[in-house]
Specification:
The chain has 3 domains: 7-173, no CATH class; 186-371 and 473-568, Rossmann fold; 373-470, no CATH class. Helix content is 24%, strand content 22%. It has 13 helices and 25 strands. The strands form 6 sheets. Strands 2, 3, 5, 6, 7, 8, 9 and 11 form an 8-stranded antiparallel sheet that branches. The chain has an 8-stranded mixed sheet with strand order 12-13-17-14-20-21-24-25, with helices on both faces. A 3-stranded mixed sheet has the order 4-1-10, with no helix packed on it.
């Protein structure tokens, strides 16, 4: 999600607006972007981006790019071996979004900025050499990735009919992100994975934020159950605050929820969780949030993948045992649970399906598509095109994003066009590309095989078949339910989604429910629930608005997991040392 600008940035933006606007004149319109020279500079590979925004007062153009109605212009080209002091050019041939070309820009005065998203070279164990943007602690956010070079924004008057060259210099570097500090309750771990290091041909790590229970430090003989909160890259522990809310905090406005002062609400609920967690009646358990950002996205989807490597095995067989040993976890499948929403919902369900004995339950909120017959608004098996309805004469675009009333503001083709601008070869770091990177086989060039053409939307049925057999969770449940999988999952799957999910994720849940409710011997014995008119990401709470229930995942699901644990623990299991 895009973050609010600081007061300092706003002040800078206002200063740009007051600066006289130079004009670009002569020859075709183009941007010449120069890499700084100096002893510390080195040739670089990456994606060169130029952003153009209407209002200089709105902040840096790099922070105004999105696929919604407020998104500003962006254009991109690949650069390889760009030398210090050399310049690269973006002209009318570069792909753009929302406008296709620089030549389509209306004459006017704009704020312009350039940025290079840096790539590293990976020599993978499968024999392929790839150039990809390694995460640098920011969770694969190209506009905020430490080490990326960017230019100071300029206010420029341009007119494609008159042409001209706009010169920009990459005179800034995004600084490193500070490591969060440990506290009595929260610890931070970073562990090198043997499996991932072997796959990627360089050291690769998994991180975790660990929340320790009240009394952990005074009860050395206690062993604790483990709860994994899956989701996107967490900078620190989510929805946790060990200090009272800041009374001086200036209230913001959350347009998504139409909620004034939502930043204050978040602090209030974080503080409430701290009080619940340390209070006398909350279950004593360990909670972890995993950092598994990789060269394609801010997380790995917690499964093994031909393109990302064995992240599922690395998490289940390396990270979890390490944490459970260090922090005195019970270390058994009956004592582990997962919960999460959106990507985290898919991860919770995916890990439960692929590692059925390693976990005792998954609380699955608003999951990414769990049945690819409803891959948002696409059936990848029957439809021929991901962008357009299969009509004889009409060309009707498939919607991608709506509000709880069904009003649409972004189409599938638009989101994929923006991704292609941000990075070729599945390198945008965005949603459609990570689905492709996780689910697809490796293509001939070593990059993920395309599920559909990014320009035309034509679906590759061979790739779709690979998706079905390896990652379509409902198909896998159907295929393997009576081969022993059903018995291992009995009572473990709990799915929640709003029936007006912003990304149409409820459509796949309907298909999942249809199968799960048809099961017998064993019956799935979980639940599937829907929130009336609820948008993304409803998580099963009928008593609160979505804006609040999304801040209470821990309080909602940990007690449910403990209740199941007590009922299903094997004979002789430790149900005493941690229940105080």
């Amino acid at each position: 999600m895009k973050r609010l600008l600081t007061a300092a940035l706003a002040a800078i933006a206002a200063a740009w607006a007051l600066t006289p606007a130079p004009s670009a004149q002569g020859g075709p319109l183009q941007f010449s972007v120069t890499m700084p020279a100096g002893p510390a500079s080195a040739p670089l590979d990456g994606r060169l981006l130029v952003m153009i925004a209407k209002d200089p007062r709105a902040g840096e153009p790099r922070l105004q790019v999105n696929d919604g109605p407020t998104g500003q212009l962006i254009f991109g080209v690949d650069v390889e071996g760009l030398q210090p002091g050399a310049a690269a050019t973006i002209d009318g041939s570069a792909i753009g979004f929302p406008l296709e070309s620089l030549n389509d820009i209306p004459a006017g005065t704009y704020s312009v900025q350039a940025l290079v998203h840096k790539y590293e070279t990976f020599k993978r164990a499968d024999g392929h050499t790839l150039k990809l943007p390694m995460d640098r602690g920011e969770g694969q956010q190209w506009a905020r990735a430490p080490g990326n070079l960017y230019s100071t924004p300029q206010t420029i008057t341009i007119d494609p009919k008159k042409g001209g060259t706009v010169a920009l210099t990459l005179d800034n570097v995004i600084p490193p992100i500070p490591t969060p500090a440990d506290s009595k309750y929260v610890r931070h771990e970073r562990v090198q994975s043997e499996r991932l290091t072997k796959f990627w041909g360089r050291p690769m790590h998994l991180g975790a934020h660990v929340l320790l229970p009240e009394g952990w430090d005074t009860r050395p003989d206690a062993r604790y159950p483990l709860f994994i909160y899956h989701g996107h890259f967490p900078a620190d522990l989510t929805n946790w605050r060990d200090q009272p809310p800041d009374a001086t905090l200036k209230p913001d406005f959350a347009a998504r929820f139409n909620w004034p002062g939502y930043n204050r609400t978040q602090q209030e609920y974080g503080w409430q969780f701290f009080k619940d967690w340390t209070g006398p009646n909350f279950p004593r358990a360990i909670v972890i949030e995993i950092q598994h950002a990789n060269p394609f996205y801010d997380d790995s989807y917690a499964v093994n993948s031909a393109n990302l490597g064995p992240y599922g095995d690395a998490i289940v067989h390396e990270l979890l045992p390490y944490l459970e040993k260090k922090y005195r976890g019970l270390g058994q499948g009956w004592s582990r649970f997962m919960y999460g929403g959106s990507t985290g919902g898919w991860e919770a369900m995916g890990a439960q399906v692929f590692y059925p004995d390693a976990f005792n339950g998954a609380y699955i909120a608003c999951p990414d598509p769990i049945d690819f017959r409803a891959f948002t608004t696409i059936d990848i098996y029957k439809d021929t095109n991901a962008f357009w309805l299969d009509n004889t004469w009409k060309k009707t675009p498939r919607p991608a994003h709506r509000n709880y009333l069904g009003h649409v503001d972004s189409m599938v083709w638009e989101q994929n066009r923006l991704e292609e601008v941000l990075g070729t070869k599945t390198r945008s770091g965005q949603q459609w590309d990570i689905w492709e990177a996780v689910y697809s086989p490796v293509g001939p060039d070593g990059y993920p095989a395309r599920i559909f053409d990014k320009r035309t939307g034509a679906i590759d049925k061979k790739v779709a078949e690979h998706w079905r057999e390896n990652f379509d969770l409902v198909h896998i449940l159907k295929r393997d339910w009576n081969k022993g999988l059903g018995k291992k999952l009995e009572g473990k799957l709990h799915i929640y989604v709003g029936d007006m999910d912003t990304y149409y994720l409820n459509n796949a849940v309907y298909l999942a429910e249809e199968f799960l409710e048809s099961t017998r011997t064993p019956y799935f014995d979980g639940d599937v629930k829907y929130g009336d008119r609820a948008e993304h990401c409803w998580n099963g709470d009928h008593t609160r608005p979505n804006a609040l229930s999304r801040l209470r995942y821990h309080q909602m699901y940990i007690p449910k997991g403990v209740e199941r644990m007590v009922k299903t623990a094997p004979a002789g299991a430790d149900l005493e040392s941690w229940r105080y």
